[in-house]
Write the structure tokens for this entry.
Amino acid sequence: MRVPEALGAGLVELGVDHVFGVVGSGNFEVTNALEAAGARFVAARHECGAVCMADGYARVTGRVGVATVHQGPGLTNAATGLTEAAKARTPLLLLAGDTSAGAVRSNFRIDQDDLAESVEAVPERVHSPESAMEDLARAHRRAVRDRRAVVLNLPLDVQSGRVPDGAELPPSPSLRPPPPGEEAVREVADLVERAERPAIVAGRGAVLSGAGESLEELGRRIGAVLATSANGNGLFADSPYAVGISGGFASPTAAELLEEADLLLAFGASLNMWTTRHGTFAGPDTAVVQVDVEPAAIGAERPVDAGIVADADRTARALTAELDRRGHDATGFRGEGLEDRIAAGRWKEEPYEDESTARTVDPRTLSVALDELLPEERTLAVDSGHFMGWPAMYLDVPDPAGFVFNQSYQSVGLGLGAAIGAAVARPDRITVAALGDGGAFMALGELDTAARLDLPLLAVVYNDSAYGAEVHHFGPHGDPVDIVQFPDSDFAALGRAAGCRGVTVRSRDDLAPVADWAGEPDGPLVVDAKVTPDVVAGWLEDAFRAH
């Protein structure tokens, strides 16, 4: 068996059933081999989009995402999406063709290992036909075990060889996340017993460990309010004590409760400046406990009073058991009226002055209306930009798999690809791609991918004809902002040109075709929402003040 055939069969044996990519001569054979072995190949229009699709697929399924690209420019085109996946610690395997060892004058020749390392990905390589299966297993194991984005380089001279007869994948050891130490659990239990107003913030690590149920039980035991980081959104979707996303997207009521907390228990959350709203949550008088499987994460963003290097779910269960042993069962925040206070303080209940005009719709009004007309079973993928808080704040998601928030690199243009990957992973749900006009233009070619796949995808472009963050950042200081403002563009027509349906929205009433589509989706629909450009996101103003 030739090396590409062995790699394709090996990946399917490892459980890979979808691969996203753009095919060139360097990855042609391995991609065909994957299809021949039973995996579904999804052809993207750009390598960055392909990696974003694999990233979105991995975030929704919890499995490794796989993408494939040509050597040289195929990999450099993929670099931005790869950086996002690497910084987000998405388990991702990027199969990249590479030049032969002797092709020193090849136009495609770059140091692909150095490129991968420079964007915080892990470089791996198929070194020889004889080591191909071990090399593949090692790369896959690093992606899954360490939750890393791994670039597996496939040199053309190695691809041309044959693996030895009988070569097999080495056995993969079963891995369990680490349990917490007993002394560390007792130390945290002491802090819990002294607390009067505890709060739990769960991040992506809590989602990955399946800690929702155990954290809700811990919250009940200690009387905590429940919040998530942006990447944990949806973990407590059904709890009346959940206040939503902590940080810049927090509602005024959520912010009040989190600021009142005298103990913050962070499970799988980095407690960065966004989650803590630049330190206004978990202030100097708040005791902070951080639980993470990564030792380097403990106290990396802010000082903590106690840290536990362990799995979030196992730690929550151990802490509850220790509190049970001590007979600790506190009311905490959960006095009479808390449920009503939280329910009345959600974003959709917060009053605002509707700034819609005859030609534009207030982005908050648009987001509230979308939440009302779309089915509850949905996936929401949000691109980066000034607009991104509104869908995150106003559109509910049913569970963590329903929220894809690729903001670890804070690059615009990655949301549409991630949404397509999410839609491929969960075709039973409508996927909403919330995009800004700037990011939508960067990924425009992937509308063809969505149409070709006939996905139940709603691409909502919050179109203010500008790079809004720069307008609102520099404009108030008197700087000219015409270089980040553009003539109005017709995304509905662009969507139709790519094979999607398209509709222009200037008011809430214009959403009627969207409601009809949502009842029975028939391929992707592009919504060109002409949003009022003067509405400034509160979270962005907070960020500007903090800087």
About this structure: The chain is about 40% helix and 15% strand. The chain has a mean pLDDT of 95. Residues 3-159 form a domain with the Rossmann fold fold (CATH 3.40.50.970).
